[in-house]
Amino acid sequence: MAEIAEQRGVRRASIRDATGTRALPPLSETSLAQWRRLAARAVEPNGYYQPDWELAVNASARGRTGTSALYASSDTAGLIGLLPVISMRRAYKIPLPALVAAEPYGTLCTPLLDRDVAQDAAAKLLQQARHSGAHALILPNMSLDGPAMQAIAAVLQRQGLRFHTLKSHLRASLDATREADELLRDALGAKKLKELRRLRNRLGEHGAVRFEVARSPQDVAAALEAFLQLEASGWKGQRGTALVQDKGDVAFARRATMASADSGQCEIVTLRAGDTPVAAAIVVRHQHRAFYFKLGIDERFAKYSPGVQLTLELTRHLCADPAITSADSTASPDHPMIDPIWRGRFAIGDVLIPLRKNDPVVKLIHAALMARQFALAQARRAVRFIRKRH
Question: How many domains does the chain have?
């Protein structure tokens, strides 16, 4: 792997498919040491843009390989900003000159910005995007109120520009500084907790119920295989979207979890009834925040609410960990399982950042994105209607 910190150190390019844009350096050639240092110093955590995770995505995940990068660097500190990107043509099948933050399998595209020079890092990322020939930068699933977006907004304001929020929603999060039982009682109420304890006791009829946390690479590797089977046994398997059903996706999952566990950034939690795993989840860590990546359950035990039971135990686990102050559910809007349990909320959204003043091309990009958004919403309504009829 080439050790680079600045764009001039890159001798070959990766993508040339963005209409009107010049090639950017490939993500795979980023200095691993400098990327790790930047992740440790990031002004806002994003577990999915840590090097062990994102390089695994970039290596084999379905539709997510061959990513390029926007870099920001300084003579004294080296790498101070990083954002994996792809062209708008590749991301949305829209041939307009824009760059889109690469989706890292987890639904969060907040760039890594050095906490001491966040605005300088943001300005340099935008400048590199501009020099590539892009007219706009699109950040899907961006943390809207966090310090990274604040740094970007401050830079745009100085340049006489402003970003556009294409859509937004509130996502469930956990305040892990609270005492877990008090938090769960406030969220669910005594009656609901009593009912869940009753279901847990009934689950115990199939064997002693225990909660396990795999942290070492060896334990994580074993726990992952159980998770993969659980995920494939449910509705994701029926729809063909389980990780194990795609060779590239399962290779990503194995590499990412093993490498991240080796650096203390990933654990897999499992709920068992006797020797039988009934629910399992992958949890990514970055700085003081945890990220609830994926959950798999054995639907034969669905009447005992195994996903909820696991989430209750995970809540207690995270609240008891002094290194964790918050957790991002990375869940879809109004998620029926996690929203009633994790009552914290933060704004997440898709952001369009213009790179030049009064640019008519940005209006075209904005219109194309809104039309795409409308078409996707109509398609989702049609799918829901068909499923209800059948």
Answer: 2
> What Rg, from alpha-carbon coordinates, does the chain have?
22
Choose among 348, 368, 372: nearest CA to 136: 368
Q: Cα–Cα distance between 286 and 175 in angstroms, integer? A: 15
Strands 78-87 vs 112-113: parallel, antiparallel or unpaired = antiparallel
* DSSP conformation class of 245: G
- Please tell me what DSSP assigns to residue 322: T
Question: CA distances (Å), 206 to each of 188, 274, 277, 278, in order?
Answer: 26, 7, 11, 10
Instruction: Please say whether the beta carbons of 327 and 318 come within 8 A.
Output: yes
**Is there a contact between 100 and 92 (Cβ–Cβ < 8 Å)?**
yes
Tell me the per-residue pLDDT of 351-381, one tens digit each, with 9 for 90 and over. Answer: 999 999 999 999 999 999 999 999 988 888 8
DSSP designation for 356: S
Name the region of 279 (left: φ>0; alpha: ψ -120 to 50; beta: rest). beta
Q: Do 206 and 154 fall within a single domain? A: no
Tell me, yes or no, whether 243 and 367 share the same domain: no
Length of the chain: 390
d(CA 297, CA 306): 7
What's the pLDDT tens digit per position in 276-292? 999 999 999 999 999 99
List the one residue out of 296, 311, 126 whose CA is nearest residue 224.
296
